[in-house]
Each structure stands twice: as structure tokens, then as C-alpha cells.
Amino acid sequence: MTRCIALSGGVGGAKLALGLSKFLSPDELLIVANTGDDFEHLGLTICPDIDTLLYTLAAIANPETGWGRADESWKTMKALETIGGETWFRLGDRDLALHLTRKQQLSSGKTLSDTIANIAESIGLKHPVVPMSDQPVRTMVRTDIGELPFQEYFVKNQCVPKVTGFQFAGVNDAKPNPLLMDALRDPRLEAVIICPSNPFISIDPILAIPGLREDLRARSAPIIAVSPIIGNRALKGPAAKMLRELGFDTSAAAIADHYGDLLQGFVIDSQDKDLANKLETKSRRVHATNTVMKSLEDRVTLARETFAFASQIQTPQTV
Ligand code: GDP
């Protein structure tokens, strides 16, 4: 019985997803990961957001880098460098073991969902983390130096090029993950939570899957987003820079505008509480609280508050 669906990117999303996993059982929570950041590299399929979620929820994430596995070594990268291999995208030795297993399973014909479920089981993760789709979707970033595959923009070019737009290659042929569709049909669903992830590159690829927005709207469970923008900045990554370059305000208000009438609830930081009245509409409630998740307690408290907020919201279907 799925009570909560969380739509998530990597680091920001994984923080809230971890909080949710501390009070919702594996049956009650479905975490849906963006795969727009995925790419093929060194013959491997790299899934940054899925892996960040897996490692974070299994408590083996690397606290120093913010990505990859804890307790990591880099011998393969060093060896790769000495033979002139590509090292701009870093993969630690332990992380590589996961990638090799994933590649082997994908090559034997398993779906991405199956390979992720197998890996999750092998690292002791009970809560389901599923890719948004088993069909490949690849985010392309339109910039002042041309269109770049996402990781070339993000890692190789360090987010320096000026962004003018996005394209999600392959999305028109993508079907939503069947477990997501089952969860959306579950009469006990109480909330769809859009985690505090980058709206353009972590959440929009999910929402771009044909028919998914309509399926989300058709549910009586409220859709609630937690703002990744606090004050006038993102806590990490290029969200604020992208907002600016695309001509929007860098504020939580721009995030509310971006999701528009998809949301029935919006959680903003207490620092932005003055925006609450402006952002509250007939069909969208606003809740202001501490949304900076430093400790595990912060993650659980925000997750609990966000989930509880859903129960106070009447959706159009239930009014
Ligand atoms: P990525 O795929 O690894 O870039 O991760 P996400 O898209 O899931 O998260 C990036 C966003 O998370 C950034 O816009 C950050 O501002 C936001 N973020 C990170 N940590 C926090 C936090 O503790 N609270 C909130 N509200 N947002 C956060």
C-alpha cells in the first residue's frame, strides 16, 4: 500500500527521501528517480541520481564528495590516467564494481528497474528506488556554446556555459515506471512529494514522460513540492544560476511558478515566510518551516512535516 510517492533527483532529493524512509515502511513509500542525468561512459551506464539515492538510503554515501560511495579508493582512475583513458568523470573502485554489475545485467537483457532492484537488495536497501522509466531519456542542455549532453555541461564544463533551454532526448518514447503507475492507482496514496531537487534537470525530465502529468493530476492525493531555493540561492548546484540565465527570479516564488497549478502544496523555508501570502492561492497552500537539512533529524522532521501537510490539503477531486 503506497502512501507516498517521492519524485527525486540526486543530492537534495535524497536528503528528503532518506527522511521519509525513516517513518514510512518500504511498502508505504515509492521513490522515483530522475534518469535524465544518465549517460554511457567507458562502456558503462552511469545513473547519478539513482546511485545517489541508493547509496544515501543504504547509508554508504560518500560524505566528502557528495556523490559516490563512502570508503572509496581511486586505483582504477589512476591506472586509467596512466594509459591515457578518459578520467574527467570520476568513478571510484567500489563504485565501479556496482557499474560493472549493472552493465552485465543490462547486457544480459534485464531492465534498468530489475538491475536497480538487484543492486538495492545486495546493499541491504529495503525501500524501493525506481527509475522514472526503463527507456533511456537523456537531458541535453542548450547553451551559448551549443547543445551539450548533460554531463558535459555539468562535469566537463562545470556548469559555466550560459543555459538557454533543455531537451529530454528519448522522452517521447519513454513509459513511466510500472511501479509508479501502480502506486498512482493505489487508493491509499496520501501524497506525491516533489523533493527539493533542481526543477529543470531533476524533476522536469520525470514530468516530461508522456501522460504522466495528467496521471498525477488525476489522483486525489495532493502534489506537494519542497523548494530547493532558499532566500535567493540554491544550497548546491546550478539551480539559481539556471533560473537567472533563463530570465526568472532566483526565489522560491519562481519554483512555485515553474510547477504552476500542478501543485496543491508548496513548502518554503522559514527565511522566505514573507512570500507565503503571495504564493498561497485558492488551489495551493503554502507551509513555511526549516528546510535546510543538515542533520538526519532535520531530514526526518522536514519529511514528517511535508507528509503531514498533505493531510491538511483538499485536492480538487475531494473538495
Ligand atoms: P542533484 O541531481 O545531485 O543535483 O540533486 P537534486 O536535483 O536532487 O538537488 C539539487 C538541489 O537540492 C539544489 O537546487 C539545492 O538547492 C537543493 N538542496 C540541497 N540540499 C538541500 C536542503 O537541505 N534543503 C533544501 N530545501 N534544498 C536543498
Describe it for me?
This protein has 319 residues and is α/β, with parallel strands linked by helices. It has 2 domains: 4-136 and 169-311, 3-Layer(aba) Sandwich (Rossmann fold); 138-168, no CATH class. Helices cover 38% and strands 18% of the residues. The protein has helices at 11-21, 48-57, 75-82, 93-107, 112-122, 150-156, 178-185, 199-207, 212-218, 239-245, 252-259, 276-279, 296-311, and strands spanning 4-8, 29-33, 39-41, 44-46, 129-131, 138-143, 146-149, 163-169, 191-194, 223-226, 229-230, 233-234, 265-269, 285-289. A 7-stranded parallel β-sheet has the order 5-2-1-9-10-13-14, with helices on both faces. Strands 7-6-8 form a 3-stranded antiparallel β-sheet. A two-stranded antiparallel ribbon has the order 3-4. Helix 1 runs parallel beside helix 2 and helix 4 packs across helix 5 (112-122). It is globular and about 60 Å long. The model has no long low-confidence stretch (mean pLDDT 96). Bound molecules: guanosine-5'-diphosphate. The site of guanosine-5'-diphosphate has 25 residues, from helix 1 and helix 2.
